[in-house]
């Protein structure tokens, strides 16, 4: 709108100027080399304007003749570059879609149009990987190292290739080259961290984790949790090697970094037991029971650390520990399980039935059913077994990434290899147990330790016809 108004104003100004010149024509004369030219001022002005326009056209034509070839070549190069970038974009889309044939074809076209620019090597390397041509991919990634602007990308590609081929040492070497060029490179630190985790080199993994936190690649909470997981594994390794003081320090650090982690509390107690510090182990269980109650801690407290006690005394020890957190489901399950093993059926049934509905799972219902069977109350037993079939599954050491069930906590999942994904949790569905996982037997109170009684097992009346 403003441009229209300005155009109208210019037209009006020119019209007024023309009208004024027409009303005042004046005269214009030139004497030059014996020639004399006389005319009106308006005609002279018109001749001057036409001459300037003609001069501008001639200059433009001459300029075009001089710079035309260079401009043509530049426009042609721009068109090639646009077509090359379009081919590269489509090639990257083909790589993302998993279309190896189109990816390689577009890669060759992009390389031809872009005159073998380093980015064309990147597309060619990814296309070769997709087409399962590792030699060509490695050649392309290596060639990218010759250019400063793509050297880091080439190192990353080579590191990824090495990891896919199972060559962790080569992957770490490439990552360290990248760190030498630019300290704090996130992908390089993560590569070192993950490879060292897979190798069980906890010290190197912890050093890489510390660097990730120092360069602000991890938030404080995530860093503390990862650090806690590493400290647990290092405490176990030190304890197994007989370095009890170092193991104790690391286990204490793990609990301090993540107070609510039952695996940290269990490790701290196991380290104390391995060092023959049974009173310390008992005290640690009491200290951690409120924040990290776990069936394994209860089993250790009642049986291993209880000495040569009678079944009734073990029930009392279970009650003493449960008093630290009397309303927790694990406290009542510990009392119920211990009382059932001791044959004190009333206490077992009472403790199991006191567990809040929101906290009940198959363990509570199975204990109630077994206690009722032992007491001869077949109707209550049948009802409890029926509830157990519909109850929530019992918690276990479950990987949140692949849902594999482990009999013991590990920092690295033995099935999918992910780090710090195994936790004491309930499965949404009952997952398949991991056949190759090593560790102690299932803990007291777990679903594995109290399987439902077979309908034909002794002690259960036959079903009504």
How would you describe this protein?
It contains 19 helices and five strands. Helix 2 runs parallel beside helix 4 and helix 14 crosses helix 15 (311-322). It has a domain at 293-392: Tetratricopeptide repeat domain (Serine Threonine Protein Phosphatase 5, Tetratricopeptide repeat). The chain has helices spanning 2-23, 41-97, 100-113, 118-130, 134-144, 151-164, 168-181, 186-199, 202-214, 220-240, 244-257, 262-274, 278-292, 295-304, 311-322, 329-342, 345-353, 362-374, 378-390, and strands at 28-32, 35-39, 396-399, 405-406, 422-425. The longest helix has 57 residues, at 41-97. It is mostly helical and 465 residues long. Strand 3 (396-399) and strand 4 (405-406) form a beta hairpin. The strands form two sheets. It has a three-stranded antiparallel β-sheet with strand order 4-3-5, with no helix packed on it.
């Amino acid at each position: 709108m403003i441009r229209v108004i300005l155009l109208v104003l210019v037209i009006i100004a020119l019209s007024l100027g023309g009208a004024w010149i027409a009303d005042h024509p004046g005269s214009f004369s030139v004497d030059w080399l014996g020639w004399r030219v006389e005319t009106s001022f308006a005609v002279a002005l018109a001749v001057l304007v036409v001459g300037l326009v003609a001069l501008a056209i001639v200059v433009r034509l001459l300029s075009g003749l001089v710079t035309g070839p260079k401009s043509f070549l530049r426009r042609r190069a721009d068109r090639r570059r646009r077509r090359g970038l379009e081919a590269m974009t489509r090639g990257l889309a083909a790589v993302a879609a998993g279309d190896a044939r189109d990816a390689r074809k577009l890669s060759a076209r992009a390389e031809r149009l872009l005159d073998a620019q380093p980015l064309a090597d990147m597309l060619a390397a990814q296309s070769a990987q997709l087409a399962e041509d590792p030699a060509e991919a490695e050649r392309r990634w290596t060639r990218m190292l010759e250019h400063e602007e793509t050297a880091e990308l080439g190192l990353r590609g080579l590191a990824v290739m090495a990891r896919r081929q199972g060559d962790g040492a080569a992957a770490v070497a490439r990552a360290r080259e990248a760190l030498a060029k630019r300290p704090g490179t996130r992908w390089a630190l993560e590569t070192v961290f993950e490879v060292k985790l897979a190798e069980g080199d906890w010290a190197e993994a912890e050093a890489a984790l510390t660097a990730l936190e120092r360069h602000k690649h991890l938030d404080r909470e995530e860093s503390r949790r990862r650090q806690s997981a590493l400290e647990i594994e290092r405490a176990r390794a030190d304890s197994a090697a007989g370095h009890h003081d170092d193991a104790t320090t690391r286990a204490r650090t793990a609990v301090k970094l993540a107070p609510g982690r039952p695996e940290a509390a269990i490790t701290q107690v196991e380290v104390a037991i391995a060092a023959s510090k049974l009173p310390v182990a008992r005290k640690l269980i009491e200290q951690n029971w409120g924040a990290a109650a776990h069936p394994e801690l209860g089993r250790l407290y009642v049986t291993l650390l209880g000495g040569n006690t009678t079944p009734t005394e073990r029930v009392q020890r279970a009650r003493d520990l449960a008093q630290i957190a009397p309303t927790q489901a694990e406290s009542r399950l510990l009392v119920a399980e211990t009382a059932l093993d001791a044959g004190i059926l009333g206490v077992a049934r009472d403790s199991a039935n006191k567990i809040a509905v929101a906290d009940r799972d198959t363990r509570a219902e199975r204990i109630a059913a077994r206690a009722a069977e032992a007491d001869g109350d077949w109707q209550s037993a049948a009802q409890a077994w029926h509830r157990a079939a519909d109850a929530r599954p019992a918690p276990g050491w479950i990987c949140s990434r692949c849902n594999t069930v482990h009999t013991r906590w590990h920092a690295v999942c033995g099935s999918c290899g992910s780090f710090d994904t195994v936790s004491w949790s309930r499965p949404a569905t009952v997952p398949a147990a991991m056949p190759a996982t090593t560790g102690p037997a299932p803990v007291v109170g777990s679903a594995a330790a109290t399987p439902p009684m077979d309908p034909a097992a002794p002690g259960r009346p036959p079903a009504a016809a």
